[in-house]
Amino acid sequence: MSQQKIDKTLYLIDGSSFLYRAYYALKPLHARDGKPVQAVYGFVRMIKKVIDSFDPQQLVLVWDSKGKTERHEEFEAYKATRQAPPSDLFEQKILINEFADLIHLKQMAMAGIEADDIIYSLAKDFSAQHDVIVISSDKDLYQMIDDKVRVFDPFKNKIVDVAEFEESKGFPIEKLAFYHALLGDASDNIPGVRGIGKVGATELVQQFDSLEQMYANLDQIAKPRIKTALENNKDNAFLSERLFKLRYHKLDTLASELKFDKDEWKSARKFFEELNFKTLVKAIEVNQPKQLSLLPEEHLSVKKKYDFKVVLTQQELDAVVEQVKKAGAFATDTETTGVNPFIDKWIGTSISTVEGESFYIPTGHQDETQKQLSLEQVVTALKPILEDPKIKKYLHHAKFDMHVFAQSGIKMQGLDFDTMVGASLVVEAWQSVGLKQLSESVFQESMLTYSMVVAESKAKDFSYVPVALATEYAASDAHQTLKLFYHFKDLLEKNELMGLYGDIENPLIDVLVDMEAEGIALDVEMLQEIGVLVEKEIKKIENEIKALVGSDDVNLNSPKQIEDILFNQLMLPPQKRKKTGYSTDQEVLENLAKLHPVPALLLKYRELSKLQSTYISSLPVYVNPNTKRVHTSFSQTRTATGRLSSSDPNLQNIPVDSSIQIRSAFKARPGHVFLSADYSQIELRVLAFLSQDPVLKKAFLEDKDIHAQTAAGLFEISVDQVTSEQRGVGKRINFSILYGLTPFGLSKDLRIPMHQAKEYIDRYFAQYPGVAQWMASIVEKTKELGYTTTYWGRKRDVPGITENNKSLFEAAKRIAINTVAQGTAAEIMKLSMIELHKQLKTKNLQSKILLQIHDELLIEVPESELEEVQKLTLDVLENIVDWDVPLKVGIKSGTDWQAVTK
C-alpha cells in the first residue's frame, strides 16, 4: 500500500502482540547492570518502525490487563493452554511502559477487559471521524475490519482490508466468528467443533449464513461425519462463537487523548543511554532516525547505493555467465510463485559476483511490457556454472534454491557458504537470521520484502510483479547475500567457528537437500482408517464416562465441568488449587487415576483427541500431489543446541509410545524396507567421554547395563540384585542428570520424599565423581566466558549464569551443561549423516536417508542392499569419532516406520 499522510488516521497498537514478539524474536540481551532488556529493545524498534512508516498523529498503545477477564467467567479454561510467561517479561514491560510515557504515547488497559476489546471499542468510537489502522498480528482482530478500519500486520508487512480478507478466506468478514465457532482457536483454547478443520469450516460458512441457521438446517449437511460432529458439539460451537466475538465497552476516551507527536522521541534519549541502546542514541544524536519503514517506498537504501540490472536478452545472459566464470564465485537467489520449492514455479534468478552490482534474470513474469528469456534458455545457460563444483556459490537458505534448481534438472554443486546457516552460529542479539533482517542489522540497509512487493503491485504471486519492481527486489537478494558472505565468513574465522561450519554445517546442507527431496510415503487411506478407529474410541470413552457419572450432559472439553464431575459428583480429593477452583491437568488426573476409572479415561480421551487433531487429520495435507510423498523441511538454525528441527510437517514428533500407531502409515516403497539406526544412550556416552569419569567410561567399555549399574549404586546393592523398578529409577536419573535434575523434580517424578530424592542424587554423584567435577567446570567456564561451547565449537550465550536470583542461575546452569552434551551429540549425528550419505553415493547404492529423528536415522533400502547397507550404517555411525568411549547403534528393519520403532 502506498503511504499517504492522512492526518485523521487513528493507529491502535496491540501491545501484547508486540511484547511477546519482541521478547522471543531476540536472543537474551542485558543492560550494563545485568537486567534483561531484549524485549524492551525489540519493542522500541517496532514502535519506531510504526512511526517511521506511518507518521501517526493519533496513536494509542493498548495492553491486556493482569488476571482473569470476563470470558473466563463464561469458560474457565479460556486461554488455559497458554504457557506461563517468562518471569522477566513483566519486568521488561515496566520499562516499556516507562518508555511509552517518556515519548507521550497514550497507553490504555482496563481490568478484566482484553486489549482486543479495547481496540475494538476505540475503533467503534472513533471510526466515524477517523480512518483506523489496527497494528497487530492477531487475526482475531480481523473481525473489526470494514470500510473505515483496516489491520496492519507488522511482521508480514501487510495491510488487510475487506477485499484482501474476503479474497483470501473465501467468505465475508461478518462470518469470521461463525468460522471460529466451528474451527475453534487453539491459542486461546476455544474448543470449536472437534473433527472440523479449516476446509470443513470454510465449506460450512460458505453454505450457511450463520451458526444459528446452520443448526436449524443440519439435514442439509451432506457428510454424515460432519453432521455428527456438529450434533455432538453444539454447546461448544455456540460457546466458541461467544468467546471469539469482540465486545464493545464504553470508554469515554477524548479525542485529545489520542494525539501523538513524533518529536517527543528525543525525550527517550537518557532511557536509551541507560539501557545501552547505542544505535537508538546515535540516531537521536544525528537528528536523523534510521528509516526502518515497513512500506515499499521507504525501502530504497539498497537500491540507491547499488547498480541493479535486468537481463532480458541471450547476449546479456551470456555476458553474466562469463562474468561468473571469470570471478570463480557468485551469490545467487531464486524467485518463485510461493514458498514450496517442490510445487511452485521458478520465476527468476538473481546473480551477483562483485559488491555494487547485481543482475536479475526474469523468466516467468506475467509482464507483457518486457520480453523475457524462456526458462529453457536460462536453464541451458546456468546449468553448467551451477553444476560446476569449482565455481563457489553463496546463498541464503540454500536448500530452497537447490530444490528449485532440481525441479528443472539442475543438481547444484559447489555450495561454499549459506549465509543463513553461517549467521546462526554467530548472531548475538537478533534470533532472526532472515536475509532482510540481517541486511538491516548488519549493514543498516533496508530491503524490500516479498509481501511488500506483491502487495505494491496488487499481485496474486510473484509472477504478477512487474519486472522493474521485481528486479529491485530480487537483485538486492543476491547482492546482500554476497555482502553477508564476506561479513559472516570473517566473523566465523574470528570466533574460530569456520571448522564447525566447514566440516559439519555446510556439507550437511547437501545431505538435507537429498533427504527432503526424497520424502517419505504416507498411506493416507490407512491413516484415515486409523482416524475412524480413534473417533470410535473417543466416542466410546465419552459414553463410558457419561455412564460412570450418570449423565449425558457432559462436555469433556470443559475443565469447569470436569472439575465438577471429579470433585463434586465423584467426591475425589482435589490435588492442586487454582484461583477459581481446582486443577484438572495431566498430573492431577494421573494421581486420581488410582482412585477411580474416570480420570484414566479422561487422560486417554485427551491423548486421542490430540492425536486426531495434530497428526491424523493434519498429515494428509502435506502429501505432495506430484510425488505422492511427504517432504518435510529440516532446519539447522532453529535450536540453540544445534539439533536439527523438522517442520511442514514436523516428523520428529510423531508419537512412538502411543497405542495408536501413526508411524505404521509411513511405508517403504515396494521392494524396499526401512532401516532404522538408533544411537543408544548417546548423551550418556558423550557425558562419559567429556567428563572422563572412570566408572562411567568402564561401564560403556565393558558394555554393561548402565541403568542397572546406576541403580545398584543408588540402592547400595549388587547389580544382580537390582529389580526392574529399581532399574527404572536408575534410568530416570541417568537421563535427567544432564537436564538439571533437582531433588524436588525427582521426588515429584518418583513420588518419594524430598530427602530421599536428594539422597539418590548425592549417591549418583558419589558413584560418578568425575561427572560432578565436569559439571562444575562447565559452570565456572561459562561464568568466565559468558557462553558455553560444544565439543566441535558451537557457542551458546548463557547470560543468566551470573544471576544472583537462584532460580535464574539454576536455569542457566542447566542450559550450560545440557547444551554441551546435547549439542555434541547432535554434532556426532550430523557427522554420521554426512559420512553415510557420502558412502552410499560412493558405492553407487540406491539406499536413501529419509529422516533424522534426533538420535535416529531412517533409511529406505532396496531389499537387495539390506545386508550391505546395514553393515555400512553400523560401521559409519559407531566409528564416526575416535573416542575412548564406544558408540553403540541399534539396527532394525521393516516395511513401515512403526515396525522399526524401538
**Mass-distribution shape:** globular
Average pLDDT score = 90
Number of helices: 35
Strand order within the widest beta sheet: 3-2-1-4-5-6
Radius of gyration: 29 Å
Structural class: alpha/beta
Largest sheet: 6 strands, mixed
If you consult CATH, what is the topology of the largest domain? Nucleotidyltransferase, domain 5
How much strand content do the residues show? Answer: 5-15%
* CATH architectural group of the largest domain: 2-Layer Sandwich
Number of strands: 25
CATH superfamily descriptor of the largest domain = Ribonuclease H-like superfamily/Ribonuclease H
Number of domains: 5
Helix content: 40-55%
Topology:
Layout lengths: L9 E5 H11 L12 H17 L3 E5 L7 H5 L12 H16 L3 E3 L6 H12 L5 E4 L13 E5 L4 E3 L1 H8 L6 H8 L14 H10 L3 H6 L7 H9 L1 H11 L24 H6 L3 H8 L15 H5 L1 E4 L3 H14 L1 E8 L9 E9 L2 E6 L12 H13 L4 E4 L2 H10 L7 E4 H6 L10 H9 L6 H7 L10 H28 L3 H21 L1 E3 L1 H26 L9 H11 L7 E2 L2 E2 L3 H7 L4 H20 L12 E2 L2 E3 L9 E3 L18 E2 L4 E8 L2 H10 L2 H8 L4 H10 L8 H13 L6 H8 L3 H14 L1 H17 L1 E3 L5 E3 L8 H37 L5 E6 L2 E7 L3 H13 L10 E6 L8
Parallel strand pairs: 1-2, 1-4, 2-3, 4-5, 7-10, 8-11, 11-12
Antiparallel strand pairs: 5-6, 8-9, 9-10, 13-16, 13-19, 14-15, 17-18, 20-24, 20-25, 21-22, 23-24
